[in-house]
């Protein structure tokens, strides 16, 4: 993220595996006079079991408060992240190649994964579309490791869904 961004623009400070960790971090930031936001709070409440698959729960702060918030996050005990879920983390909880923002490539991968997961509930009707989105996301050059993992999940789910649909269609065609 560039330093020329408006000071009131929201930027992602970190991602948490659990909603309670994100809420505790927002409380810690609030105690220091920094307003924290959890844009994924409703999603995390309703689909708590998918929060890791969807990339975690974002904690955002205003651009003007980002440096102070990173200092608070770097303090011991500010946020305990699961070491298995986030390997190779820096003291602020982010990967080496991750500044906490989601770029266009990662957004495309995230969208592909969401469509693939929703297609599971729709009995595979949109798996071809999610397959298209996953392949398009994987072809992007601005994809980070985080986005590549989401696009890979979307690709696997979509391929399985398309295979399942093809098997059903073949079975219906041969049963007549």
Strand-helix topology:
Blueprint: E1 10-16, H1 19-31, H2 41-46, E2 57-62, H3 66-74, H4 104-121, H5 127-138, H6 145-174
Antiparallel strand pairs: 1-2
Helix pairs in contact: 4-5, 4-6, 5-6
Which key features would you list for this structure?
two-stranded antiparallel ribbon, single chain, 2 strands, mainly alpha, 2 domains, 176 residues
Verbal overview:
With 176 residues, this protein is mostly helical. The protein has two domains: 1-101, no CATH class; 104-174. 50% of the residues lie in helices and 7% in strands. It has helices at 19-31, 41-46, 66-74, 104-121, 127-138, 145-174, and strands at 10-16, 57-62. The chain has a two-stranded antiparallel ribbon with strand order 1-2. It is elongated and about 70 Å long. The model is unreliable at 81-95 (pLDDT under 50).
User: In total, how many beta strands?
Assistant: 2
Beta-strand content estimate:
5-15%
The dominant shape is elongated
Helix content: 40-55%
Question: What is the number of independent domains?
Answer: 2
Q: How are the strands ordered across the major sheet?
A: 1-2
Q: How would a crystallographer describe the biggest sheet?
A: 2 strands, antiparallel
- The helix-and-strand class reads mainly alpha
Query: What number is the mean pLDDT?
Result: 78
Poorly predicted residue ranges: 81-95
Total number of helical segments?
Answer: 6
SSE string, helices as H and strands as E = EHHEHHHH
Radius of gyration, CA atoms, in whole angstroms:
19 Å
The end-to-end distance, rounded to whole angstroms, is 59 Å
């Amino acid at each position: 993220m560039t330093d020329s961004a408006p000071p009131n623009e929201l930027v992602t400070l970190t991602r948490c595996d659990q909603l309670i960790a994100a809420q505790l971090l927002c409380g810690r930031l609030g105690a220091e006079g920094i307003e924290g936001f959890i844009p994924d709070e409703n999603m995390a409440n309703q689909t708590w079991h998918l929060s890791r698959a969807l990339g975690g729960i974002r904690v955002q702060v205003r651009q003007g408060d980002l440096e102070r918030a990173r200092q608070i996050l770097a303090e011991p005990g500010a946020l305990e992240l699961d070491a298995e879920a986030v390997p190779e983390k820096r003291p602020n909880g982010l990967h080496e190649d991750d500044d906490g923002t989601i770029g266009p490539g990662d957004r495309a991968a995230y969208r592909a994964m969401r469509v693939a997961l929703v297609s599971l509930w729709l009995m595979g009707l949109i798996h071809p579309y999610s397959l298209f989105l996953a392949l398009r996301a994987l072809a992007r050059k601005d994809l980070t490791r985080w986005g590549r993992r989401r696009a890979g999940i979307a690709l696997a789910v979509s391929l399985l869904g398309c295979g399942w649909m093809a098997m059903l269609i073949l079975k219906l065609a041969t049963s007549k």
